[in-house]
Design brief:
Length: about 425
């Protein structure tokens, strides 16, 4: 055999191998040629319970990154949100948080594991009320939920009922069961119902290593094929009814909001101005048991604090802020993390946890403050910072949640604090 003939055969074998493998994995083109860059709202719900070894939890995160990389990401393309669950629902970032794959990958890498029981019903409720709620998603865009779990939930009936509510809202649900401890009936109830024999919304694998090897290509291909279902007339009527009640901020979502003011840092004169500002802001909150609740963290002794369920009326709450008497920030952040959002103080499991911190100079005891802020954010509390005057940029970035440009409200002086309300409302009310 001549050298030229042998070379041609080698090239032919290599081309045959490449083409056969390329056709076998069409999902590598999900974001482009296969889907035609079709936009979607995709939300991941990851099991974070005690039964999952930390190494396996990280394999879930790697799976999320691998799936995300098969879609074309952008504000007008596919958007991604991620939450985890154990005893309760923890949203790590919403659909509108990141618009680049690199940002999503970095955020996924930082997701902590919150161990506890498998309360899948609470997680699905969180998806419905926060993650894929109607105010968060774009109209006429497919909504897709991908649920990963390694075991049966604590309450199968509640889980099945809540899964049905999610699907009744037109959300397409893919369920991925991992290992031998899952309940197939429950998984089938979570997953969307196939409309034809080729449809598949339930996947089962033996272990976490099989996520990337077995599930990724099939799941992304099916996700690509999801079509938008038309909403019912009843749903449209319900939306119209909701759109006519109360202020816009907090109309569509549930949030527990704490304002954090340290009189010992800003002084009593400036504290009064901050209270007046808060009183003005909350007048434009849609308050109630199914909307926004507001509390105040201001005194070490707790005498001037306001619990989340103390006021449901904006006028009374505004009056309370204006009449509040004039604490060290680390202690207040610790109480914020350990007490403010508890059930005893009016906290709600499904509510978005938000806090607004007022600062006007370099942080006193910077290391302790930032350490408490980090711990608070790990407890799924979203921190906003109103920076008045000459605050230090690096400190503010470490104090607030990401992305920093959405969570810092800069005000040149206390005299201009009230004028900053439109800027504050625009950033703070996004998604509420």
């Amino acid at each position: 055999m001549g050298m030229a003939t042998m070379y041609c055969r080698i090239v032919l074998i290599m081309m045959t191998y490449y083409v056969s493998n390329y056709e076998a994995a069409p999902s590598e083109l999900i974001g482009g040629d296969v889907c035609g860059a079709k936009p979607a709202e995709i939300y991941f719900l990851l099991d974070s319970s005690t039964s999952i070894w930390s190494v396996d939890f990280k394999k879930q995160l790697e799976f999320v990154k691998a799936v995300v990389n098969t879609f074309e990401i952008g504000p007008d393309k596919t958007r991604i949100g991620v939450a985890s669950f154990s005893y309760t629902f923890h949203e790590h970032f919403g659909l509108d948080r990141y618009s680049k794959i690199e940002e999503i990958e970095n955020a996924v890498k930082r997701i902590p594991q919150y161990i506890g029981g498998t309360h899948t019903d609470k997680a699905l409720n969180g998806v419905l009320s926060r993650g894929l709620s109607k105010d968060k998603v774009r109209k006429d865009i497919a909504r897709i939920l991908i649920v990963l779990t390694d075991g049966a939930s604590f309450n199968a009936k509640k889980t099945k009922d809540m899964a049905q509510k999610v699907k009744d809202e037109g959300i397409v649900v893919f369920a991925v069961g991992i290992g031998s401890r899952t309940n197939k009936d429950e998984l089938a109830a979570i997953a969307s119902t196939p409309k034809n024999p080729d449809d598949k919304y339930l996947f089962e694998v033996d272990n976490f290593d099989d996520l990337d090897n077995t599930v990724k290509n099939k799941l992304t291909t099916k996700a690509c094929e999801v079509k938008v279902e038309e909403e019912s007339v009843e749903t449209e009527k319900e939306d119209q009814k909701d759109d006519n009640s109360g202020p816009e901020c907090g109309k569509h979502n549930i949030a527990d909001v704490m304002f954090v003011v340290d009189p010992s840092e800003v002084g009593s004169f400036h504290t009064k101005r901050i209270y007046d500002f808060i009183g003005n802001v909350v007048n434009d909150f849609n308050m109630g048991k199914d909307n926004i609740q507001v509390g105040l963290e201001s005194q070490n002794c707790g005498a001037a604090n306001i619990s989340l369920n103390q006021y449901n009326n904006s006028r009374d709450l505004a009056k309370a802020f204006r009449s509040t008497k004039v604490s060290q920030l680390p202690d207040m952040l610790k109480r914020l993390r350990t007490h403010s959002y508890t059930k005893e103080n009016g906290g709600r499991n499904i509510a978005r946890r938000m806090a607004v911190i007022f600062v006007d100079d370099s942080l006193y005891d910077k290391k302790t403050v930032l350490d408490e802020a980090r711990r608070t954010k790990l407890q799924d509390v979203e921190l906003f910072v109103v920076a008045i005057g000459d605050s230090v940029d690096d400190e503010l970035k470490a104090l607030c949640s990401s992305p920093v440009e959405r969570h810092i409200i800069r005000v040149p002086s206390y005299q201009e604090l009230m004028e900053s309300k439109p800027q504050f409302m625009k950033k703070f009310c996004l998604g509420l």
